[in-house]
Sequence to fold (114 residues):
Amino acid sequence: MRIWLALLVAPSLALACQSILYAMVTPACGFQSRNGLHLVAAGSLALAGIFTLLAWHEWRLRATSPGRTADSDDADPSTSRRFLAIVATAVGVLSSLTILTMWMAVWVLSPCWQ
Fold:
């Protein structure tokens, strides 16, 4: 379960963050406050980071399992699960970086800028 959070939910979270930030620009301009935008971006980044850490932990757990070599090419479920954990960690990192770059735009650009 920990792998699938980073593999599927983290990219969906990045897309949801983008949609919510875009929808909140007009109210943020009206209130002259970016606090809501920062809250959405920070929460999304925190969740994506947690999901990535869970996948990374699963990867490290599979890498140090006893009786296995680091570069085994066996077609067993543990090797497949380790590969999925590696891919999930990479996808989680990419999603976190995407959310971070959207958050940097919130810091730099005014919501009322046209």
Notes: The chain has a mean pLDDT of 88. Residues 2-108 form one domain.
